[in-house]
């Protein structure tokens, strides 16, 4: 008889958000796989929980190597509980590989639901939450980050991102360039903690605000694109043609249209070429 894998959500800030079930599951586990064993010990101490099983580290650096060991424990009939530093395992945290392996081995997988920075930030943002997409952390390199955001500029659903304090300004600037300076956004930091703060406004205002320094764990919520404002390549080519008819040189017309519609000049240039030769 195989064991059971339990993904256990932990508080994202206020330790009193921990459920009574979380305490029972941790105390009864044969193995607790923790992203940070020291933070786990601190949590169990604050909750007055005595762990009966063994504790192993399970973080990004050793997830691939440790997954087979944990899977074997499950196959041998043990209960393995996975916890991360905050929130639900596998959501931008370790857990996915073990879940996939457990399912493949026909091991029972369940969860102890807990606080979520994604859902908490969405609820506090004041932006539409009927449809949303979670994008995790943006790429660190500017070029890759810009390309990722360019792919999302026409996304109609509200978008949720995680970001590190030292990259917050650069990411907000890149978002303003890709989505437009007036795109509604909320920056949520230190959720459920003593210094919780939610700053709402258009991206250009948040860029200015962030330059004074933003500390803590950060979740960014960005409004989706207005479908009525999304322009096609044909729209861009027509705008360039209008400017040219008014006497503007094509190169300048392309630059002007790119700025007007907040799209890269290359996008406008490609649209003009496509309009001239639809077969390509």
Largest sheet: 5 strands, parallel
Low-pLDDT stretches are none
Number of strands: 10
> In percent, how much strand structure appears in the residues?
15-25%
What does this structure look like?
With 280 residues, the chain is of the alpha/beta class. 42% of the residues lie in helices and 19% in strands. The strands form two sheets. The protein has a five-stranded parallel sheet, sandwiched between helices. 36% of the residues are buried. The model has no long low-confidence stretch (mean pLDDT 93).
Structural descriptors:
280 residues, alpha/beta, 5-stranded parallel sheet, 5-stranded mixed sheet, elongated
Summarize the structure.
Helices cover 42% and strands 19% of the residues. With 280 residues, it is an alpha/beta fold.
Topology:
Layout: E1 4-8, H1 20-28, E2 31-34, H2 37-47, E3 54-57, H3 63-75, E4 79-83, H4 96-104, E5 108-112, H5 117-125, E6 132-137, H6 142-152, E7 158-163, H7 168-179, E8 184-189, E9 197-202, H8 203-210, E10 218-222, H9 233-245, H10 250-261, H11 265-276
Parallel strand pairs: 1-4, 1-5, 2-3, 2-4, 6-7
Antiparallel strand pairs: 7-10, 8-9, 8-10
Helix pairs in contact: 3-4, 6-7, 7-8, 9-10, 9-11, 10-11
